[in-house]
């Protein structure tokens, strides 16, 4: 009997920001499963993957998170059906990141203007000039200083930087940047476990240039361990029980051990330094050194085998050996420096990786049932030299991926150029072909006239302006000599305040308050309107502007948003309370699944509010009733249903702190007629939502559906993407 598939993901706060690589993880596992060596994604979990009826990815070309929330009311189907939502890192070439580089998409017999393709791999030219390693470093050998990361590269790849807001309290190794080509190399690797604080170090290894182990120490985490991650770290509870060494001890030892011109080498070394809470100016990151296109990275295990001929991270061992990993990263850097970029490029690592994956597939003959051609015949084809992708593996297993979309939208040359195709034609073809394919990518677009960069800039300003208005409330009137401190204290109990100003243009003074979260502003309107504050009976309201006339409708729809089911907002917390304290305080609440405590992204300090996610909606309602009026550590709590989905905290904070006037609003604004282009755009968005609804309804039960607003990069800045996902059940819900 077919088991119902299920998707789970705790997408709150920083955990809801998903990279292209993490998205690729999900799609690869959904398409191939464990039987083809694909691993469960690190950020979510698919239950009963082998019972999936198929995977459908809907790509909304040149659209971003901004579009979804600007036209939130128009996307009626999307916001009500998909239970999981995440912010997506924008990509320079999004379709390529899904299809795989070097994939030659050959059109089949399709109506004019429509592209329907299956993945066919062809061998690219072996010209080394096209190799990303040569493009980055040139052909000549260079000293080690040419391969250390610049300050800009460190910032881009999330390395701890001196003076950076997120690195407050970090310890510097006190090494200077006076490195030379003869500076000593040291390999570093850490193993981490998950604690109430986040990722914390449990083991540290340091090796010198000869590979000798200088440090291999277990470390006791400061916070309560939530997950030892034994499968990867090799750390167990029993191992850490007698350990007395703390992070500060390791920091001091590393400072003493490293000479002033030391160069640290590691694989994704930024994670190790972040966990160590240490800053070091001179680093070589082997995950970046062996460059690949589109920001993809080779795994350390593969590089060790392909370049050094060494087997590491063997499955027989319990977890990774940090000394082994540190030594492997060090030797890889030494090989690169000694041999030079040309010799490394000649290894043709992409081809080796593809061959390795095909060999893994061939070992699973029991599950390989090729259709229309012999399996051996496919294996005898020359392996592609380009970046391998799961679409290639699907072909080897006899599955035909389906790619449908407008032509001319993809600058990579994957599609023919013809702008005559409509979304309606694409939908019609999708309704016919998607049921016949196990993996489908369907691309819709608003059309070229709506993707100009100046329109994106205008869209950003409109969303920012409306968001600012929704975060703002006016309170008053007050007496002439009212106590501003009392007002701030009372309104602060509703949530974190961004700015507070006194309005003196009126007969009696009013106060304008801009909050950091939507829930705080709404809570202030609901709980303090008509209340006595600072000796006055006051009225609390939002600004009256043309854009705010539908505010009450928007608030109601946000409350009903499927992603806010079972999530409540709690304000009035003391800022001294930690996440561990709150977990303990709220432990008595039934079915509590996740607690998210927002932080100021500049100072790193906790705000005086949190979000609680429950497994059941009824449990959230019961908790709401119980919490209102609670006193915690002398502070009275206020709560309400969540309004902003969990993935929006960072985005709202950034919009709230972007350029533009804050805390100053015109109370009454002249109604501006909506431009014809925006009215037309709203109609197109509504139609697009209807197309997706029709496509979704046609899908079989147990189909994973992912809708992607890829985001964009323009002269006006980068716009984050958005992903919505779910597995369709028998009732048509995700």
Describe the protein's architecture and organization.
With 734 residues, this protein is of the alpha+beta class. Helices cover 33% and strands 21% of the residues. The protein is built from 26 helices and 33 strands. It has a nine-stranded mixed sheet. A hairpin with a 2-residue loop joins strand 31 and strand 32. Mean pLDDT is 81; it is low at 100-126, 365-387, 408-420 and 659-674.
Q: Concise description?
A:
The chain is α+β, with helices and mostly antiparallel strands. The chain is built from 26 helices and 33 strands.
**CATH fold-level name of the domain at 142-339:** Nucleotidyltransferase, domain 5
Overall morphology: globular
* N-to-C span: 21 Å
CATH superfamily of the domain at 142-339: Ribonuclease H-like superfamily/Ribonuclease H
Strand content: 15-25%
Helix content: 25-40%
Please tell me the CATH architecture of the domain at 142-339 by its name.
2-Layer Sandwich
Unreliable parts: 100-126, 365-387, 408-420, 659-674
How would you write the strand order of the largest sheet?
Answer: 2-5-33-30-4-17-16-7-6
What is the radius of gyration computed over CA atoms, rounded to a whole number of angstroms?
A: 28 Å
Question: Biggest sheet, open or closed, and with what strands and sense?
Answer: 9 strands, mixed
Total DSSP E strands: 33
| CATH secondary-structure class of the domain at 142-339 | Alpha Beta
Q: What is the mean pLDDT?
A: 81
Assembly of the depicted chains: single chain
What class do helices, strands and sheet pairing give?
A: alpha+beta
Separate helix tally: 26
GO molecular function: exonuclease activity; RNA binding
Domain RRM: 471-545, 566-644
Protein name: REXO5 exonuclease
Pfam families: RNase_T, RRM_1
């Amino acid at each position: 009997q077919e088991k119902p598939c299920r998707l789970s993901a705790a997408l709150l706060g920083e955990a809801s920001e998903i990279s292209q690589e993490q998205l690729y993880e999900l799609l690869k596992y959904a398409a191939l499963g464990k039987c083809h060596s694909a691993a469960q994604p690190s950020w979510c979990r698919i239950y009963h993957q082998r019972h999936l009826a198929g995977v459908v990815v809907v790509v909304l070309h040149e659209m971003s998170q901004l579009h979804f929330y600007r036209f939130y009311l128009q996307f009626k189907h999307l916001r009500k059906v998909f239970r999981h939502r995440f912010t997506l890192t924008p990509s320079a070439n999004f379709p390529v990141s899904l299809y795989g580089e070097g994939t030659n998409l050959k059109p089949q017999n399709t109506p004019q203007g429509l592209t329907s393709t299956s993945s066919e791999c062809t061998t690219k030219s072996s010209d080394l000039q096209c190799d990303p390693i040569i493009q980055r470093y040139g052909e000549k050998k260079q000293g080690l200083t040419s391969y250390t990361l610049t300050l800009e590269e460190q910032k881009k790849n999330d390395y701890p930087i001196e003076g950076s807001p997120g690195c407050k309290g970090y310890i510097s190794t006190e090494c200077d940047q006076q490195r030379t080509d003869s500076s000593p190399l040291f390999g570093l690797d850490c193993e981490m476990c998950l604690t109430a604080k986040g990722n914390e170090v449990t083991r540290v290894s340091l090796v010198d240039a000869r590979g000798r182990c200088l440090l291999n120490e277990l470390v006791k985490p400061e916070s309560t361990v939530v997950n030892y991650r034994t499968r990867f770290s090799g750390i167990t509870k029993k191992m850490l029980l007698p350990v007395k060494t703390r992070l500060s001890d390791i920091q001091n030892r590393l400072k003493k051990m490293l000479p002033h011109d030391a160069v640290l080498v590691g694989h994704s070394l930024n994670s190790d330094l972040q966990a160590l809470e240490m800053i070091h100016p001179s680093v070589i990151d082997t995950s970046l050194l062996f460059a690949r296109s589109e920001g993809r990275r080779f795994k350390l295990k593969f590089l060790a085998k392909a370049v050094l001929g060494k087997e590491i991270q063997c499955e027989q061992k319990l977890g990774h050996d940090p000394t082994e990993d540190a030594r492997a990263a060090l030797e890889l850097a030494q090989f690169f420096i000694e041999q030079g970029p040309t010799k490394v490029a000649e290894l043709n690592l992409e081809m080796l990786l593809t061959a390795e994956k095909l060999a893994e597939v061939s070992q699973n003959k029991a599950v390989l049932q090729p259709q229309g051609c012999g399996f051996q015949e496919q294996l005898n084809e020359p392996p592609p030299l380009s970046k391998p992708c799961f679409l290639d593996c699907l072909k080897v297993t006899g599955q035909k991926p389906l790619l449908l979309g407008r032509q001319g939208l993809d600058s990579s040359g994957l599609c023919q150029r013809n702008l005559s195709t409509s979304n309606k034609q694409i939908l019609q073809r999708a309704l016919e072909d998607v049921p016949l394919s196990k993996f489908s990518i369907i691309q819709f677009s608003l059309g070229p006239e709506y993707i100009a960069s100046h329109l994106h800039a205008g869209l950003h300003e409109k969303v920012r302006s409306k968001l600012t208005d929704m975060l703002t409330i006016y309170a008053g009137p007050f007496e002439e000599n009212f106590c501003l401190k009392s007002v701030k204290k009372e309104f602060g109990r509703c949530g974190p305040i961004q700015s507070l100003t006194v309005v003196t243009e009126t007969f009696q003074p009013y106060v304008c308050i801009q909050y950091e979260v939507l829930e705080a502003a709404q809570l202030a309107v609901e709980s303090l309107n008509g209340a006595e504050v600072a000796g006055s009976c006051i009225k609390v309201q939002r600004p009256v502007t043309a854009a705010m006339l539908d505010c009450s409708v928007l608030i109601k729809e946000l409350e009903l948003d499927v992603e806010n089911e079972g999530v409540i907002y709690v304000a009035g917390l003391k800022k001294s309370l930690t996440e561990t304290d709150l977990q303990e305080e709220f432990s008595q609440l039934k079915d509590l699944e996740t607690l998210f405590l927002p932080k100021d992204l500049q100072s790193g300090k906790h705000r005086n509010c949190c979000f609680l996610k429950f497994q059941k909606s009824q449990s959230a309602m019961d908790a709401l009733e119980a919490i209102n009026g609670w006193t915690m550590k002398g502070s009275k709590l206020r709560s309400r249903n969540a309004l902003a989905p969990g993935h929006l905290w960072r985005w709202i904070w950034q919009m709230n702190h972007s350029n533009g006037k804050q805390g100053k609003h015109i109370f009454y604004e002249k109604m501006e007629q909506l431009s014809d282009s925006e009215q037309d755009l709203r109609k197109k968005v509504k139609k697009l939502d209807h197309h997706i609804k029709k496509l979704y309804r046609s899908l079989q039960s147990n189909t994973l559906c992912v809708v992607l607003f890829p985001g964009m990069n323009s002269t006006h800045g980068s716009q984050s993407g958005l992903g919505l996902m779910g597995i369709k059940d028998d009732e048509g819900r995700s």
